[in-house]
Design brief:
75 residues, mainly alpha, 4 helices, 81% helix
Length: 75
């Protein structure tokens, strides 16, 4: 069962990369996508106060919330 959970988790993470628009922005080039992710990790590690992570979390939460409202709103 752990393998199945891990696979689902990895698929969801890949979906977030797609949803954020990084795949299209990078023209589906995996080296570019990986480099962009490494850049983000580097920036977050340089930020001693954790401000970058807090900012990213707020922005992501707002977007998830907006999508949920959009799904719940009848056409």
């Amino acid at each position: 069962m752990q393998r199945r959970e891990r696979t689902r988790h990895l698929i969801e993470l890949g979906g977030l990369v797609q949803k954020a628009g990084l795949v299209d922005l990078a023209d589906d080039d995996r080296a570019t996508i990986y480099g962009a992710l490494l850049e983000l990790v580097g920036r977050a590690r340089e930020d001693d106060n954790g401000d970058a992570l807090a900012l990213w979390k707020r922005r992501g939460r707002r977007e998830f919330d907006a999508e949920e409202v959009e799904r719940e709103t009848p056409p």
